[in-house]
Amino acid sequence: xxxxxxxxxxxxxxxxxxxxxxxxxxxxxxLLIRPEDIQRIFSxxxxxxxxxxxxxxxxxxxxxxxxxxPFEAVHRDIKLLESYGLVKLDxxxxxxxxxxxxxxxxxxxx
Length: 110
What we know:
45% helix; Arc Repressor Mutant, subunit A; three-stranded parallel β-sheet; alpha/beta; 2 domains; 5 helices; elongated
């Protein structure tokens, strides 16, 4: 389970971080994200990638073909999603298999 918490400022982010250190959320990953990053992470194209990754896919090439987008664009989006911990990449030879890192929960109101 990946829980995304929208944190409005650095002071609140530090408070949340220290709360997580004191009382870890065992069994889930908690991402503390600024409001301005939400649109970047969850653009319509990236949301579509996350949606398609709910079912196993063969490779980034297969995903790009299914999305009718260039491989490079999908690869870039996958790498961004990986950097936030939402996607894992499994390398099998020359193929890279993207998978969801877990179920994603985004509370709109805290």
